[in-house]
Amino acid sequence: MTNVIDGNAVADGIRADLEDCVDTLDNAGVTPGLATVLVGDDPASETYVSMKQRDCEEVGMNGIHVELDGDAAPDELYDTIDDLNDDSSVHGYLVQDPVPDQIDYREVIRRIDPAKDVDGFHPENVGRLVAGDARFKPCTPHGVQKLLDAADVDPEGKDVTIVGRSRIVGKPLANLLMQKTDGGNATVTVCHSRTQDLAEKTRRADIVVAAVGAPELVDGSMLSEGTTVIDVGVNRVDADTDEQRSSSSQNSSSSDDTEKGYELVGDVEFDSAKEKASAITPVPGGVGPMTRAMLLYNTVKAASQQED
Ligand code: GUN
To answer: Where is the segment annotated Disordered (predicted)?
Structure first.
C-alpha cells in the first residue's frame, strides 16, 4: 500500500506545537508578528498572502499586511521595507514574489533585515545555510524535510534526485539534504532543463523531489518500485486551453478551482507514480500546507531570537 502523505495533517501538528510556543511568548509579553507585502494584484499571490494571514490568526500571531499598487516605484517599496525593519512588533516579514517588472527582487531581498527574513532568501541567510549554520531554513525545503520525517523516511545514505534548481527550493533543499545533520546525509543529484536522460536519474533515486514547475513531468515509468516521491509543483492548468502557470510551492486549492477555470496539478503524474511509490505527496494537500506552516515556525523563531 502506498502511503499518501497528508501534508495538511502534518502541518496541523506543527501549527498545534507552534500555538504552545506563541502562548509562552505571549505570556512573556511578546506576540510574534508576521508581515506580508504584496505589490500589485496577481490573483495567485493575493490568495497565498491571505492564507498566510489567516494562518497567523489561527495560531494567535499578529498578521500585518501591506499592499502597494502594481505601478509602485521601487523607492516606495524600499520605504516600506525600511519601516518593517524598524518596527519592533514585526519579527518577520516577506515580500511576495513575483514583483512587477520595475522592481528588482534581488535588490528587495538585500534590503530586508536578515534577522527578519523568515523566507531565508537574504544572501547572508543563504550563506549561513550553505555553511551549515542556518538562521532560518527556507520554508519549502524545511517542509519537505518534515514530510520525509513524518513518513519515516530518513534521507541518510539514500540517493535523492531533485528535479529543479530554483533559488527557493532545489538549491536550498540540496544543501539541507547533503548536510551532516539529522534529516541530511543523503547523496543528492540536482537535475534541470539541460539534464540528459532525466529518467535515468529519477529511476536510480530512493527519493525523488519534483520542483520544476512542469505539469506532470515525472510519471511512473520514470520511477523505481518503492521510491518516495515529493511533489513540490503547483501548476494551474487552464481547464479549457491547457495553458498553464506554475509556482513553486504555495498551493491554494479550493474545491471550486475547476469552476474558476483551472485545475491544480503537480510536477508528478500522480496516478502512475503512486503505482510505483512507497510514499507520495498529493497536490494539493502535500507540500503546500507545509510551506506555510514552516513560515510560522520561522516567525516564532525570529520572535524568540529578537527577544533574547
Ligand atoms: N512566491 C512563491 N513562493 C514564495 C515564497 O516562498 N516566498 C515569497 N516571498 N514569495 C513566494
So the answer is: 238-260
